Batch of 2 targets.
Target 1
Amino acid sequence: MKSIKVLMLGDVSGDPGKRALFVGLSSLTKITGADLVVANGENAAQGFGIECEDYYTFKQMGIDVITSGNHIWQKQEIFPLLDSQKDLLRPINYTSSVPGHGVCTLEKNGIKFAVVNVQGRVDMPITEDPFKASRQELERLYKQGYITLVDLHAESSLEKESLAFYLDGLCAAVVGTHTHVQTMDERIMPGGTAYITDIGMTGVQDMVIGSDPSVSIHRQLSQVPVRSVVAEGNGVIKGVLIEIDCDTRKAIKIERI
Protein backbone atom coordinates (compact mmCIF):
# COMPACT_ATOMS: atom_id res chain seq x y z
CA MET A 1 0.00 0.00 0.00
CA LYS A 2 1.35 3.40 -1.01
CA SER A 3 0.22 6.41 1.01
CA ILE A 4 0.80 10.15 0.89
CA LYS A 5 0.56 12.86 3.53
CA VAL A 6 -1.10 16.27 3.32
CA LEU A 7 -0.69 19.25 5.64
CA MET A 8 -3.77 21.47 5.87
CA LEU A 9 -3.11 24.62 7.88
CA GLY A 10 -5.61 26.90 9.58
CA ASP A 11 -6.37 30.56 8.91
CA VAL A 12 -3.09 32.49 8.75
CA SER A 13 -3.73 35.56 10.92
CA GLY A 14 -1.72 38.68 10.09
CA ASP A 15 2.03 39.15 10.41
CA PRO A 16 2.42 36.79 13.42
CA GLY A 17 0.90 33.96 11.40
CA LYS A 18 3.12 34.68 8.41
CA ARG A 19 6.20 34.85 10.63
CA ALA A 20 5.29 31.48 12.17
CA LEU A 21 5.15 29.95 8.70
CA PHE A 22 8.43 31.60 7.68
CA VAL A 23 10.18 30.17 10.73
CA GLY A 24 8.52 26.78 11.03
CA LEU A 25 6.86 25.55 7.84
CA SER A 26 9.93 24.18 6.09
CA SER A 27 10.98 22.05 9.07
CA LEU A 28 7.36 20.99 9.74
CA THR A 29 7.02 19.78 6.16
CA LYS A 30 10.23 17.78 6.44
CA ILE A 31 9.39 16.31 9.85
CA THR A 32 5.91 15.21 8.81
CA GLY A 33 6.93 14.09 5.34
CA ALA A 34 4.07 16.07 3.82
CA ASP A 35 3.66 15.66 0.06
CA LEU A 36 1.22 18.58 -0.27
CA VAL A 37 0.65 21.74 1.79
CA VAL A 38 -2.65 23.63 1.81
CA ALA A 39 -3.22 26.80 3.88
CA ASN A 40 -6.14 29.16 4.37
CA GLY A 41 -4.82 32.67 3.70
CA GLU A 42 -7.90 34.87 3.94
CA ASN A 43 -6.72 36.63 7.14
CA ALA A 44 -3.12 37.20 6.05
CA ALA A 45 -3.47 40.97 5.47
CA GLN A 46 -3.82 42.36 9.00
CA GLY A 47 -6.62 39.88 9.62
CA PHE A 48 -8.79 40.84 6.66
CA GLY A 49 -8.14 39.50 3.18
CA ILE A 50 -4.96 38.65 1.35
CA GLU A 51 -2.65 40.92 -0.63
CA CYS A 52 -0.68 40.04 -3.76
CA GLU A 53 2.56 40.10 -1.77
CA ASP A 54 1.09 37.55 0.66
CA TYR A 55 0.26 35.19 -2.19
CA TYR A 56 3.80 35.23 -3.54
CA THR A 57 5.26 34.90 -0.03
CA PHE A 58 3.12 31.83 0.63
CA LYS A 59 4.27 30.25 -2.62
CA GLN A 60 7.93 30.88 -1.76
CA MET A 61 7.36 29.19 1.60
CA GLY A 62 6.25 26.01 -0.15
CA ILE A 63 2.47 26.24 0.16
CA ASP A 64 0.94 24.44 -2.80
CA VAL A 65 -2.66 25.71 -2.59
CA ILE A 66 -4.10 28.75 -0.79
CA THR A 67 -7.75 28.64 0.22
CA SER A 68 -9.92 31.42 1.63
CA GLY A 69 -13.43 32.37 2.74
CA ASN A 70 -15.67 35.38 3.28
CA HIS A 71 -12.75 37.80 3.83
CA ILE A 72 -11.21 37.14 0.42
CA TRP A 73 -13.07 40.18 -0.94
CA GLN A 74 -11.48 42.67 1.50
CA LYS A 75 -8.48 43.48 -0.74
CA GLN A 76 -9.48 44.27 -4.30
CA GLU A 77 -5.87 44.13 -5.47
CA ILE A 78 -6.06 40.34 -5.22
CA PHE A 79 -8.97 40.04 -7.68
CA PRO A 80 -6.79 39.66 -10.82
CA LEU A 81 -4.78 36.90 -9.12
CA LEU A 82 -7.99 35.08 -8.21
CA ASP A 83 -8.61 34.77 -11.93
CA SER A 84 -5.06 34.10 -13.11
CA GLN A 85 -3.63 31.79 -10.41
CA LYS A 86 -5.17 28.33 -10.27
CA ASP A 87 -3.71 27.67 -6.79
CA LEU A 88 -5.45 30.65 -5.15
CA LEU A 89 -9.07 29.85 -4.32
CA ARG A 90 -12.25 31.56 -3.24
CA PRO A 91 -15.26 29.48 -2.14
CA ILE A 92 -16.85 27.56 -5.00
CA ASN A 93 -20.40 28.52 -4.04
CA TYR A 94 -20.09 32.22 -4.80
CA THR A 95 -21.82 33.22 -8.00
CA SER A 96 -19.84 32.82 -11.21
CA SER A 97 -20.08 36.58 -11.80
CA VAL A 98 -17.39 37.28 -9.16
CA PRO A 99 -13.64 36.81 -9.74
CA GLY A 100 -11.88 33.54 -9.17
CA HIS A 101 -12.62 29.85 -8.86
CA GLY A 102 -13.20 27.34 -6.07
CA VAL A 103 -11.25 24.30 -7.28
CA CYS A 104 -7.55 23.68 -7.89
CA THR A 105 -6.30 20.54 -9.61
CA LEU A 106 -2.60 19.72 -9.72
CA GLU A 107 -0.20 16.84 -10.08
CA LYS A 108 2.71 16.45 -7.67
CA ASN A 109 5.14 13.53 -7.51
CA GLY A 110 2.89 11.61 -9.87
CA ILE A 111 -0.23 12.04 -7.70
CA LYS A 112 -3.34 13.85 -8.92
CA PHE A 113 -4.67 16.20 -6.23
CA ALA A 114 -7.72 18.45 -6.14
CA VAL A 115 -8.55 21.05 -3.50
CA VAL A 116 -12.10 22.37 -3.18
CA ASN A 117 -12.94 25.51 -1.19
CA VAL A 118 -16.56 25.90 -0.02
CA GLN A 119 -18.28 28.34 2.34
CA GLY A 120 -21.13 27.66 4.75
CA ARG A 121 -24.33 29.71 4.91
CA VAL A 122 -25.32 29.61 8.61
CA ASP A 123 -24.44 33.01 10.16
CA MET A 124 -22.32 33.77 7.10
CA PRO A 125 -22.70 35.98 4.02
CA ILE A 126 -25.29 34.75 1.54
CA THR A 127 -23.94 32.30 -1.04
CA GLU A 128 -25.28 29.55 -3.23
CA ASP A 129 -25.98 26.13 -1.66
CA PRO A 130 -22.68 24.65 -0.36
CA PHE A 131 -24.14 21.13 -0.32
CA LYS A 132 -25.13 21.04 -3.97
CA ALA A 133 -22.10 22.97 -5.20
CA SER A 134 -19.52 20.85 -3.42
CA ARG A 135 -21.10 17.45 -4.06
CA GLN A 136 -21.52 18.11 -7.77
CA GLU A 137 -17.85 19.08 -8.03
CA LEU A 138 -16.62 16.17 -5.90
CA GLU A 139 -18.54 13.63 -7.95
CA ARG A 140 -16.84 14.97 -11.08
CA LEU A 141 -13.38 14.92 -9.49
CA TYR A 142 -13.92 11.45 -8.01
CA LYS A 143 -14.68 10.01 -11.45
CA GLN A 144 -11.48 11.59 -12.77
CA GLY A 145 -9.33 9.87 -10.15
CA TYR A 146 -8.26 12.82 -8.00
CA ILE A 147 -7.34 12.66 -4.32
CA THR A 148 -9.61 15.46 -3.18
CA LEU A 149 -9.43 17.71 -0.11
CA VAL A 150 -12.12 20.16 1.04
CA ASP A 151 -11.63 23.38 3.03
CA LEU A 152 -15.06 24.07 4.53
CA HIS A 153 -15.06 27.69 5.69
CA ALA A 154 -18.07 27.97 7.98
CA GLU A 155 -19.36 29.15 11.35
CA SER A 156 -21.79 26.40 12.33
CA SER A 157 -20.53 23.08 13.70
CA LEU A 158 -23.87 21.52 12.78
CA GLU A 159 -23.54 22.66 9.18
CA LYS A 160 -19.92 21.49 8.98
CA GLU A 161 -20.66 18.01 10.30
CA SER A 162 -23.76 17.69 8.13
CA LEU A 163 -21.81 18.57 5.00
CA ALA A 164 -19.01 16.18 5.97
CA PHE A 165 -21.47 13.28 6.20
CA TYR A 166 -23.03 14.36 2.89
CA LEU A 167 -19.62 14.24 1.19
CA ASP A 168 -18.23 11.21 3.03
CA GLY A 169 -16.60 8.77 0.62
CA LEU A 170 -16.28 11.26 -2.25
CA CYS A 171 -13.15 12.93 -0.88
CA ALA A 172 -10.17 12.19 1.34
CA ALA A 173 -10.82 15.03 3.77
CA VAL A 174 -13.27 17.70 4.85
CA VAL A 175 -11.64 20.14 7.27
CA GLY A 176 -13.31 23.15 8.85
CA THR A 177 -11.84 26.64 8.94
CA HIS A 178 -13.07 30.13 9.97
CA THR A 179 -13.63 29.94 13.75
CA HIS A 180 -9.87 30.01 14.54
CA VAL A 181 -10.33 27.57 17.46
CA GLN A 182 -8.92 24.09 16.90
CA THR A 183 -11.42 21.38 17.83
CA MET A 184 -10.60 17.90 19.18
CA ASP A 185 -13.06 15.85 17.13
CA GLU A 186 -10.74 14.68 14.36
CA ARG A 187 -11.76 11.28 12.99
CA ILE A 188 -12.09 9.06 9.95
CA MET A 189 -15.73 8.89 8.87
CA PRO A 190 -17.48 5.64 7.81
CA GLY A 191 -16.85 6.27 4.10
CA GLY A 192 -13.14 6.97 4.57
CA THR A 193 -13.16 10.78 4.70
CA ALA A 194 -11.01 12.48 7.35
CA TYR A 195 -12.90 15.18 9.27
CA ILE A 196 -12.34 17.87 11.90
CA THR A 197 -14.74 20.71 12.71
CA ASP A 198 -11.99 23.33 12.76
CA ILE A 199 -8.25 23.01 12.18
CA GLY A 200 -7.48 26.17 14.17
CA MET A 201 -5.54 29.33 13.42
CA THR A 202 -1.92 30.01 12.50
CA GLY A 203 -1.18 33.10 14.58
CA VAL A 204 -1.07 34.33 18.18
CA GLN A 205 -2.95 31.75 20.26
CA ASP A 206 -3.34 33.30 23.74
CA MET A 207 -5.58 36.14 22.57
CA VAL A 208 -9.13 36.44 21.18
CA ILE A 209 -9.04 34.26 18.03
CA GLY A 210 -5.75 35.96 17.18
CA SER A 211 -6.92 39.52 17.82
CA ASP A 212 -6.24 42.16 20.49
CA PRO A 213 -8.43 41.35 23.54
CA SER A 214 -8.96 45.03 24.46
CA VAL A 215 -10.57 45.75 21.10
CA SER A 216 -12.71 42.62 21.28
CA ILE A 217 -13.85 43.45 24.84
CA HIS A 218 -14.75 47.01 23.82
CA ARG A 219 -16.83 45.66 20.97
CA GLN A 220 -18.75 43.32 23.28
CA LEU A 221 -19.35 45.95 25.96
CA SER A 222 -20.37 48.73 23.59
CA GLN A 223 -21.90 46.67 20.75
CA VAL A 224 -20.18 49.11 18.39
CA PRO A 225 -18.91 47.10 15.39
CA VAL A 226 -15.29 48.22 15.69
CA ARG A 227 -12.84 46.35 13.52
CA SER A 228 -10.71 43.66 15.16
CA VAL A 229 -6.96 44.24 15.40
CA VAL A 230 -4.49 41.37 14.97
CA ALA A 231 -2.64 40.74 18.23
CA GLU A 232 1.13 41.12 18.44
CA GLY A 233 3.26 38.23 19.61
CA ASN A 234 4.73 34.93 18.55
CA GLY A 235 2.58 32.92 16.20
CA VAL A 236 1.92 29.18 16.30
CA ILE A 237 1.19 26.91 13.34
CA LYS A 238 -2.01 24.90 13.66
CA GLY A 239 -3.69 22.48 11.31
CA VAL A 240 -3.85 18.77 10.58
CA LEU A 241 -1.72 16.10 8.96
CA ILE A 242 -3.74 13.63 6.90
CA GLU A 243 -2.42 10.32 5.60
CA ILE A 244 -4.20 8.97 2.52
CA ASP A 245 -4.13 5.58 0.76
CA CYS A 246 -3.26 6.28 -2.88
CA ASP A 247 -5.14 3.24 -4.17
CA THR A 248 -8.45 3.80 -2.41
CA ARG A 249 -8.08 7.60 -2.15
CA LYS A 250 -9.43 7.27 1.40
CA ALA A 251 -7.93 8.69 4.57
CA ILE A 252 -5.97 6.39 6.86
CA LYS A 253 -5.13 8.82 9.65
CA ILE A 254 -5.72 12.42 10.73
CA GLU A 255 -3.57 14.11 13.35
CA ARG A 256 -3.81 17.59 14.82
CA ILE A 257 -0.74 19.86 14.45
Note: The first helix runs from residue 14 to 32.
Target 2
Amino acid sequence: MKYFYLLFFLSFLFSCTNNKSTPIPTPEIQAPHQITKSEFQTILDSADLKGAILIFDSEANTFYSNDFAWSEKGQLPASTFKIPNSMIALETGVVEDENTLFKWDGRKRMVKIWEQDLIFRDAFKFSCVPCYQEIARGIGVDRMKEFLSKFDYGNIQVDSTNIDLFWLIGAAKITPFEEIDFLKRFYNSKLPISKRTEKLVKKIMVLQENPTYKLSGKTGWSMDNDKNNGWFVGFVEANNKVYYFATNVEPNPSFDMALFPKIRKAVTMQALQELNIIDAF
Protein backbone atom coordinates (compact mmCIF):
# COMPACT_ATOMS: atom_id res chain seq x y z
CA MET A 1 0.00 0.00 0.00
CA LYS A 2 2.89 2.40 0.82
CA TYR A 3 4.40 1.61 -2.57
CA PHE A 4 1.08 2.50 -4.22
CA TYR A 5 0.92 5.89 -2.48
CA LEU A 6 4.54 6.60 -3.43
CA LEU A 7 3.81 5.90 -7.09
CA PHE A 8 0.69 8.08 -6.92
CA PHE A 9 2.66 10.98 -5.36
CA LEU A 10 5.45 10.75 -7.94
CA SER A 11 2.92 10.61 -10.77
CA PHE A 12 1.11 13.69 -9.41
CA LEU A 13 4.41 15.60 -8.95
CA PHE A 14 5.53 14.77 -12.49
CA SER A 15 2.17 15.89 -13.86
CA CYS A 16 2.36 19.26 -12.06
CA THR A 17 5.90 19.83 -13.25
CA ASN A 18 4.86 19.19 -16.84
CA ASN A 19 1.91 21.58 -16.51
CA LYS A 20 4.16 24.33 -15.21
CA SER A 21 6.53 23.98 -18.14
CA THR A 22 3.78 24.03 -20.75
CA PRO A 23 3.79 27.49 -22.38
CA ILE A 24 0.51 29.38 -22.38
CA PRO A 25 -0.33 30.38 -25.94
CA THR A 26 -0.69 34.11 -26.47
CA PRO A 27 -3.58 35.31 -28.59
CA GLU A 28 -2.56 36.23 -32.12
CA ILE A 29 -3.09 39.91 -32.89
CA GLN A 30 -4.41 40.39 -36.38
CA ALA A 31 -2.89 43.22 -38.39
CA PRO A 32 -5.58 45.62 -39.63
CA HIS A 33 -6.80 45.19 -43.18
CA GLN A 34 -6.24 48.00 -45.66
CA ILE A 35 -8.74 48.67 -48.42
CA THR A 36 -8.05 51.29 -51.08
CA LYS A 37 -11.08 53.42 -51.88
CA SER A 38 -10.88 55.12 -55.27
CA GLU A 39 -14.09 56.93 -54.32
CA PHE A 40 -12.11 58.91 -51.72
CA GLN A 41 -9.71 60.03 -54.43
CA THR A 42 -12.66 61.16 -56.54
CA ILE A 43 -13.89 63.23 -53.60
CA LEU A 44 -10.51 64.96 -53.27
CA ASP A 45 -10.13 65.46 -57.01
CA SER A 46 -13.56 67.08 -57.16
CA ALA A 47 -12.54 69.40 -54.31
CA ASP A 48 -9.26 70.33 -56.07
CA LEU A 49 -7.19 68.83 -53.25
CA LYS A 50 -4.38 66.33 -52.91
CA GLY A 51 -3.82 64.18 -49.84
CA ALA A 52 -5.44 61.31 -48.01
CA ILE A 53 -8.64 60.48 -46.20
CA LEU A 54 -8.02 57.66 -43.70
CA ILE A 55 -10.92 55.98 -41.90
CA PHE A 56 -10.67 53.09 -39.43
CA ASP A 57 -13.55 50.71 -38.68
CA SER A 58 -12.55 49.40 -35.26
CA GLU A 59 -15.01 46.49 -35.24
CA ALA A 60 -13.93 45.25 -38.68
CA ASN A 61 -10.26 46.10 -37.90
CA THR A 62 -10.04 47.73 -41.32
CA PHE A 63 -8.52 50.94 -42.66
CA TYR A 64 -9.97 52.64 -45.74
CA SER A 65 -8.03 55.26 -47.70
CA ASN A 66 -7.35 56.60 -51.16
CA ASP A 67 -3.62 56.88 -50.41
CA PHE A 68 -1.95 54.78 -47.71
CA ALA A 69 1.50 56.14 -48.57
CA TRP A 70 0.31 59.71 -47.81
CA SER A 71 -1.25 58.39 -44.60
CA GLU A 72 2.23 57.35 -43.44
CA LYS A 73 3.75 60.81 -44.08
CA GLY A 74 4.36 63.04 -41.08
CA GLN A 75 2.95 66.56 -41.08
CA LEU A 76 2.81 69.38 -38.55
CA PRO A 77 -0.11 68.58 -36.22
CA ALA A 78 -1.35 72.20 -36.34
CA SER A 79 -4.53 72.67 -34.29
CA THR A 80 -5.20 68.94 -33.99
CA PHE A 81 -2.61 69.33 -31.22
CA LYS A 82 -5.27 71.17 -29.24
CA ILE A 83 -6.61 67.72 -28.31
CA PRO A 84 -3.52 66.55 -26.37
CA ASN A 85 -2.72 70.13 -25.34
CA SER A 86 -6.14 70.34 -23.68
CA MET A 87 -5.53 67.06 -21.83
CA ILE A 88 -2.14 68.23 -20.56
CA ALA A 89 -3.58 71.61 -19.53
CA LEU A 90 -6.23 69.91 -17.41
CA GLU A 91 -3.87 67.31 -15.94
CA THR A 92 -1.35 69.95 -14.88
CA GLY A 93 -3.96 72.38 -13.54
CA VAL A 94 -3.03 75.11 -16.03
CA VAL A 95 -6.71 74.97 -16.98
CA GLU A 96 -9.26 74.22 -14.26
CA ASP A 97 -12.28 73.26 -16.35
CA GLU A 98 -14.24 74.10 -19.49
CA ASN A 99 -15.15 77.53 -18.08
CA THR A 100 -11.61 78.76 -17.39
CA LEU A 101 -11.41 82.29 -18.81
CA PHE A 102 -8.80 83.57 -21.26
CA LYS A 103 -8.73 87.34 -21.30
CA TRP A 104 -8.19 89.15 -24.59
CA ASP A 105 -5.33 91.65 -24.32
CA GLY A 106 -6.95 94.04 -26.79
CA ARG A 107 -4.45 93.40 -29.56
CA LYS A 108 -5.55 92.68 -33.11
CA ARG A 109 -5.55 88.96 -33.86
CA MET A 110 -5.40 86.97 -37.09
CA VAL A 111 -9.00 85.78 -36.67
CA LYS A 112 -11.69 88.26 -35.63
CA ILE A 113 -13.55 85.84 -33.37
CA TRP A 114 -10.42 85.55 -31.20
CA GLU A 115 -10.67 89.26 -30.34
CA GLN A 116 -12.74 88.69 -27.20
CA ASP A 117 -12.54 86.99 -23.82
CA LEU A 118 -13.02 83.24 -24.35
CA ILE A 119 -13.69 80.41 -21.95
CA PHE A 120 -11.71 77.20 -22.48
CA ARG A 121 -14.56 75.38 -24.24
CA ASP A 122 -14.90 78.16 -26.80
CA ALA A 123 -11.14 78.57 -27.18
CA PHE A 124 -11.11 74.95 -28.36
CA LYS A 125 -14.18 75.38 -30.55
CA PHE A 126 -12.84 78.54 -32.24
CA SER A 127 -9.31 77.11 -32.37
CA CYS A 128 -7.87 80.15 -30.60
CA VAL A 129 -4.12 80.00 -31.21
CA PRO A 130 -3.18 82.77 -28.72
CA CYS A 131 -5.20 81.01 -26.00
CA TYR A 132 -3.40 77.71 -26.57
CA GLN A 133 -0.03 79.46 -26.78
CA GLU A 134 -0.74 80.81 -23.31
CA ILE A 135 -1.63 77.28 -22.20
CA ALA A 136 1.59 75.84 -23.64
CA ARG A 137 3.73 78.45 -21.89
CA GLY A 138 1.92 77.67 -18.64
CA ILE A 139 2.61 73.96 -19.04
CA GLY A 140 6.30 74.57 -19.79
CA VAL A 141 8.88 72.53 -21.66
CA ASP A 142 9.54 69.80 -19.09
CA ARG A 143 5.92 68.92 -18.40
CA MET A 144 5.02 69.14 -22.09
CA LYS A 145 7.80 66.71 -23.03
CA GLU A 146 6.87 64.38 -20.17
CA PHE A 147 3.24 64.09 -21.26
CA LEU A 148 4.04 63.79 -24.97
CA SER A 149 6.33 60.88 -24.11
CA LYS A 150 3.60 59.25 -22.01
CA PHE A 151 1.09 59.80 -24.81
CA ASP A 152 3.47 58.40 -27.46
CA TYR A 153 2.23 61.22 -29.64
CA GLY A 154 3.95 61.58 -33.02
CA ASN A 155 7.52 62.86 -33.40
CA ILE A 156 7.49 66.16 -31.54
CA GLN A 157 10.51 68.27 -30.59
CA VAL A 158 9.90 70.82 -27.82
CA ASP A 159 12.35 73.24 -26.25
CA SER A 160 12.44 76.71 -24.74
CA THR A 161 12.62 78.37 -28.15
CA ASN A 162 9.45 76.83 -29.58
CA ILE A 163 7.18 75.99 -26.62
CA ASP A 164 4.32 78.10 -28.00
CA LEU A 165 4.85 77.38 -31.71
CA PHE A 166 6.10 73.80 -32.18
CA TRP A 167 2.79 72.43 -33.44
CA LEU A 168 2.46 75.20 -36.07
CA ILE A 169 5.95 75.57 -37.53
CA GLY A 170 9.17 73.57 -37.44
CA ALA A 171 10.08 69.90 -37.35
CA ALA A 172 7.17 68.40 -35.35
CA LYS A 173 5.48 65.59 -37.27
CA ILE A 174 2.54 63.23 -36.91
CA THR A 175 1.01 60.93 -39.52
CA PRO A 176 -2.67 60.21 -40.15
CA PHE A 177 -2.08 56.65 -38.88
CA GLU A 178 -0.56 58.07 -35.68
CA GLU A 179 -3.46 60.50 -35.25
CA ILE A 180 -5.90 57.59 -35.37
CA ASP A 181 -3.79 55.49 -33.00
CA PHE A 182 -3.79 58.34 -30.48
CA LEU A 183 -7.55 58.86 -30.83
CA LYS A 184 -8.22 55.13 -30.38
CA ARG A 185 -6.24 55.06 -27.15
CA PHE A 186 -7.99 58.21 -25.96
CA TYR A 187 -11.48 56.92 -26.76
CA ASN A 188 -10.79 53.55 -25.10
CA SER A 189 -9.36 55.09 -21.90
CA LYS A 190 -5.81 53.89 -22.62
CA LEU A 191 -4.08 57.23 -22.02
CA PRO A 192 -2.52 58.13 -18.64
CA ILE A 193 -5.09 60.81 -17.83
CA SER A 194 -7.86 61.07 -15.26
CA LYS A 195 -11.45 60.13 -16.03
CA ARG A 196 -12.36 63.75 -15.38
CA THR A 197 -9.95 64.98 -18.07
CA GLU A 198 -11.09 62.30 -20.50
CA LYS A 199 -14.74 63.18 -19.99
CA LEU A 200 -14.19 66.92 -20.35
CA VAL A 201 -12.06 66.68 -23.52
CA LYS A 202 -14.56 64.32 -25.12
CA LYS A 203 -17.27 66.82 -24.29
CA ILE A 204 -15.56 69.82 -25.90
CA MET A 205 -14.68 67.76 -28.99
CA VAL A 206 -18.33 67.11 -29.94
CA LEU A 207 -19.20 68.86 -33.21
CA GLN A 208 -22.54 67.32 -34.16
CA GLU A 209 -25.01 65.03 -32.48
CA ASN A 210 -28.27 63.70 -33.88
CA PRO A 211 -30.37 60.54 -33.56
CA THR A 212 -28.13 58.61 -36.01
CA TYR A 213 -24.58 59.64 -35.15
CA LYS A 214 -22.30 61.67 -32.89
CA LEU A 215 -19.33 63.41 -34.50
CA SER A 216 -16.30 64.52 -32.47
CA GLY A 217 -13.12 66.04 -33.83
CA LYS A 218 -10.72 68.88 -34.48
CA THR A 219 -9.48 70.62 -37.60
CA GLY A 220 -5.96 71.92 -38.11
CA TRP A 221 -4.19 74.20 -40.58
CA SER A 222 -0.47 74.89 -40.82
CA MET A 223 1.20 77.41 -43.12
CA ASP A 224 4.90 76.63 -42.83
CA ASN A 225 7.49 77.26 -45.57
CA ASP A 226 4.79 78.52 -47.94
CA LYS A 227 2.91 75.21 -47.70
CA ASN A 228 -0.71 74.99 -46.62
CA ASN A 229 -1.56 71.70 -44.95
CA GLY A 230 -4.95 70.90 -43.44
CA TRP A 231 -6.33 68.29 -41.06
CA PHE A 232 -9.62 66.99 -39.80
CA VAL A 233 -9.31 64.22 -37.20
CA GLY A 234 -11.73 62.60 -34.80
CA PHE A 235 -14.25 59.82 -34.40
CA VAL A 236 -17.88 59.04 -35.20
CA GLU A 237 -20.15 57.00 -32.97
CA ALA A 238 -22.80 55.42 -35.20
CA ASN A 239 -24.62 52.11 -35.55
CA ASN A 240 -23.43 51.15 -32.04
CA LYS A 241 -19.84 51.28 -33.32
CA VAL A 242 -17.01 53.80 -33.40
CA TYR A 243 -15.10 54.87 -36.50
CA TYR A 244 -11.93 56.96 -36.44
CA PHE A 245 -10.79 59.34 -39.16
CA ALA A 246 -7.76 61.44 -40.06
CA THR A 247 -7.95 63.55 -43.21
CA ASN A 248 -4.82 65.38 -44.32
CA VAL A 249 -4.97 67.52 -47.44
CA GLU A 250 -3.17 70.23 -49.36
CA PRO A 251 -4.64 72.58 -51.97
CA ASN A 252 -3.79 72.28 -55.65
CA PRO A 253 -2.44 75.49 -57.27
CA SER A 254 -5.88 76.33 -58.69
CA PHE A 255 -7.69 75.87 -55.34
CA ASP A 256 -9.73 78.77 -53.92
CA MET A 257 -8.20 79.21 -50.45
CA ALA A 258 -11.37 80.91 -49.19
CA LEU A 259 -12.86 77.38 -49.15
CA PHE A 260 -10.06 75.76 -47.14
CA PRO A 261 -11.54 76.30 -43.64
CA LYS A 262 -14.65 74.23 -44.47
CA ILE A 263 -13.39 71.82 -47.13
CA ARG A 264 -11.42 69.57 -44.73
CA LYS A 265 -14.55 68.59 -42.84
CA ALA A 266 -16.69 68.48 -45.99
CA VAL A 267 -14.55 65.89 -47.82
CA THR A 268 -14.33 63.77 -44.67
CA MET A 269 -18.10 63.77 -44.27
CA GLN A 270 -18.48 62.72 -47.91
CA ALA A 271 -16.11 59.80 -47.30
CA LEU A 272 -18.02 58.75 -44.17
CA GLN A 273 -21.18 58.87 -46.23
CA GLU A 274 -19.51 56.78 -48.95
CA LEU A 275 -18.92 54.04 -46.35
CA ASN A 276 -22.55 54.33 -45.14
CA ILE A 277 -21.35 55.39 -41.70
CA ILE A 278 -23.47 58.53 -41.75
CA ASP A 279 -26.46 59.63 -43.78
CA ALA A 280 -26.35 62.38 -46.37
CA PHE A 281 -25.60 65.69 -44.65
Note: The longest strand covers residues 213-224.
